Amino acid sequence: MVYFPGQYTGNQGAYTPVTARPLPPELLRLRGISARNMQEHYKLYQGYVHKTNEIRSLLRTVDRATANATYSPLRALKVEESYATNGAKLHELYFGNLGGPGGRPAQDLYDFIVRSFGSYEAWETDFKASGLAVRGWATLSFDPDDGFLHNYSMDAHNAGLVVHMIPLLVMDVYEHAYYMDYGTDRKGYIEAFFQNIDWAAVEARLHALKH
Known about the structure:
Blueprint: E1 2-3, E2 8-10, E3 13-15, E4 18-19, H1 35-59, H2 73-96, H3 107-117, H4 120-133, E5 137-143, E6 148-154, E7 166-172, H5 179-182, H6 186-195, H7 199-209
Antiparallel strand pairs: 1-4, 2-3, 5-6, 5-7
């Protein structure tokens, strides 16, 4: 999301509106994932950005005196803020690591994967299986606490997130990511995803952590 700091203030402090990032044109020319599917997918992402702004606006004036863990307006907004905001950010990471030639990563990242998983093939097998095992997202993430890469999975935008993980490669496995092209064949979609990975973008995310 693109942030515009300091444009609004309210009685609960600053409110920072966000706007959707544009869909890269190369994502309309993917192998095995249609332009129509990507256009519809992008509309869904725009919806998460819109709802993030709506929720943050409502949080400026919600009654905090009635806060309650069973139900309260504040609880509802806080729960859905994490859903909408994560939904937007995860989609940005997903779109950002597509549009490449697939294949294998450059040597530095390849070697890091081998150190973390034993072999590249072991990582790929586990990542693809992770994408079949959950309902939402599969990620190759860096854990700064142990210094290794891990495949983490999420059942929803705000369910399964591992604290302090840093996603490097993100794969959307919600039905909306593939149903138009593949029906219930999620395996076929995952193979198409691998054919379009932009490893340079993934490597740039890892490189940014070192500087």
